[in-house]
Amino acid sequence: MSRLAFALALVSLFFVARGSAFVPAAKGTCLNSPTRSQQYPERRAQRSSLNIFGNLKGAFANDDSLGKADNAGLKGGPNFSQTTINGKPVKAVANQKVSQVAAAARVKITYSCKKGDCGTCEVMMNGRIVKACQAKITSGKCDINTL
Q1: CA–CA distances in Å: residue 59 to residues 7, 16, 51, 53, 123
Q2: Is 98 exposed, middle or buried (0-12, 13-18, 19+ CB in 10 A)?
Q3: What are the residues whose beta carbons fall under 8 Å from the beta carbon of 81, sequence distance 6 or more?
Q4: Which of 63, 77, 100, 116 shows its CA 20 to 30 Å from the CA of 131?
Q5: Burial class of residue 134, CB neighbours in 10 A (0-12, 13-18, 19+)
Q6: How far apart are the first and last CA of the chain?
Q7: CA 143, CA 126: separation in Å to the nearest integer?
Q8: In a 3-state reduction of DSSP, which class is residue 75?
Q9: How many CB atoms lie under 10 A from the CB of residue 90?
Q10: Residues 78-86: contacts with CB within 8 Å, 24+ apart?
Q11: In 20-133, which residue ranges form alpha helices assigned H by DSSP?
Q12: Strands in 87-134 per DSSP E
């Protein structure tokens, strides 16, 4: 109990010492005083500016001397391949991984290492046995069958 009384006394002493915080401000000070812009109207026209972005105004503008900008995307679009997985036609882009195409087509291929070391993911692609985690879709016709 004595600690609580000591803490209350300390807090009350703090507020009493800072008694000016509870006294209303004198007339003509603080709240009733004019603002700086009202005191010095000539300073209002002289706004200070750091001009940080003013120098960068033309930095991101297009340079007309370079000509018309080309489309940054693929020229002519992606190179689609006629791909079938277990006889089901699927959309695939040439050089896309077989594992990604099979996952998009919801064809289950078992994987173990996904590095090409174990051989768990072997599939038959265009008559050859390849590892689905490493093989890529060929351009043109591609026929994939799971084993």
Answers
A1: 62, 60, 14, 10, 54
A2: buried
A3: 92, 93, 94, 137, 138, 139, 140, 141, 142
A4: 77
A5: middle
A6: 82
A7: 5
A8: coil
A9: 19
A10: 79/139, 81/137, 81/138, 81/139, 81/140, 81/141, 81/142, 82/140, 82/141, 82/142, 83/137, 83/141, 83/142, 83/143, 83/144, 84/142, 84/143, 84/144, 85/144, 85/145, 85/146, 86/144, 86/145, 86/146
A11: 36-39, 41-44, 98-104
A12: 88-93, 122-125, 128-131
> Residue 70 corresponds to which amino acid?
D
Helix%, strand%, coil% for the chain, nearest 5: 30, 20, 50
Residue whose C-alpha is closest to residue 98's, from 128, 127, 74, 130 = 130
Report the helix count and the strand count for the chain, using DSSP H and E. 4, 5
Q: Which residues pair with 89 in a beta bridge?
A: 84
Report the C-alpha gap between 102 and 84 in whole angstroms.
10
